[in-house]
Amino acid sequence: MAPDPIPVRSVSILECRNCGAGAPVDEHFCPQCSRILALGRHGDYFSFLGLPRALAIDPQLLEQRFRELSRKFHPDYYYNAPPAERLASLERSSYLNDAYRALKNPITRIEHLLAIEGLPPAKSEEGTAKVPPSLLEEVFALNEELDEIREARESGADPETLRARLDAARRPIDAKREEHERQLQELSAAWDAEHARATLDALRERLLERNYINNLLATIEREMTAVSAHG
User: Which of 56, 59, 50, 49 is nearest to 96 (CA)?
Assistant: First the structure.
């Protein structure tokens, strides 16, 4: 089956405030007068850094692009420049830092990709706590175990025994987390190869499940803290 077609993206144009020439939104400096351009409506960290819209990024290349642009945008270079250029350097420096932080981390990189491809964020609907179907078994077992551990803690049970039970309860959740990390890596490679919409949908689902798993691990950690406080 052929991959879903990639939508054609329109090219936005920035107007140089110095000479009035037009420049593609991905340009940082006016092609006519070489002055720094106002940031405008950007929104794509990949193109801002001159990187392909891919989830496998060479860390050294990312670092190199970040340092190169950091030097070019640094406000110190625009200390005596007109106010518009000083503002442009500050805007681009701030946006560059945001882009670098987002693309450096594989998870926030996926989240940004989902956003610029038009998918909703990988967060549960506000006010709901729907359990992902793939986690029903683990969640049911964990909730039962945590209820028993809380009752035992309140009854004065041995803290070491409770910590051992919590460690045992954590293991299947940790295993599920590792499984999801592998799935995210596989789906990321699939996106880079085919750019299929179905892959983006699957990535979002895996992130939703990953966030839920992290919440489960946080719940176990809170119970471990409560047990230690009574130990």
Answer: 49
Q: Report the distance separating Cα 44 and Cα 113, nearest Å.
A: 9
Task: Give yes or no for a contact between 92 and 39, defined as CB atoms under 8 angstroms apart.
Answer: yes
- Amino acid in the structure at residue 6: I
pTM across the whole model:
0.84
The amino acid present at 99, given as its one-letter code, is: A
Q: Which amino acid is at 32?
A: Q
pLDDT tens for 62-98 read: 999 999 999 999 999 999 999 999 999 999 999 999 9
pLDDT in tens, 201-210: 999 999 999 9
Domain 13-104 belongs to what topology? Helix Hairpins (1.10.287)
- What whole-number distance in Å separates Cα of residue 74 and Cα of residue 92? 9
Residue 137 and residue 172 in contact, taking contact as beta carbons nearer than 8 Å: no
The tokens describing 109, both together, are 């990189």
The token pair that represents 16 in the structure block: 């140089």
Domain ranges of the chain: 13-104, 133-229
